Amino acid sequence: MTLLQAYPLQHYLIIGAILFALGLYIVLTRKNAVAILMGIELILNSTNINFVAFARYTANNISGQVFAIFVIILAAAEAAVAFAIILNIYRNLKSVDVDKADDLKH
To answer: Which of 25, 36, 79, 87 would you call most buried, defined as having the most Cβ atoms within 10 angstroms of its Cβ?
Structure first.
């Protein structure tokens, strides 16, 4: 019996839902751009847990793992672009507060 088979699907879905809720809470409540980026990463990782769990328990194939790898690659690209934007905001404003980011328009 593998680790994945030791627990029912509901346990993985609950963990995915908790991670998604925490990520959404961070995105909605934080003003720090780095914290918002970390919240987005939590949301994407909760999606990966659900992809892998559903693929294992319902279809029993590797399509969930393929989607999870695609999401990981997408998240890495998104993080690189977001950190570049955050670094540029910090250079101009000496802060990573997203409320001050509208000053870049002027």
So the answer is: 36
Enter the DSSP assignment of 98.
Answer: G
User: Which amino acid does the sequence have at 3?
Assistant: L
Task: Compute the distance between CA of residue 62 and CA of residue 69 in angstroms, rounded to an integer.
Answer: 11
Q: Is 97 helix (H, G, I), strand (E, B) or coil?
A: strand
What is d(CA 68, CA 70) in angstroms, rounded to the nearest whole number? Answer: 5
Q: What is the pLDDT of residues 74-96, one digit of tens each?
A: 999 999 999 999 998 899 888 88
Task: Tell me which residue has tokens 């934007």.
Answer: 85
Task: Check: CB of residue 92 under 8 Å from CB of residue 85.
Answer: no
Q: Can you read off the two tokens belonging to residue 88? A: 């540029």
pTM: 0.82
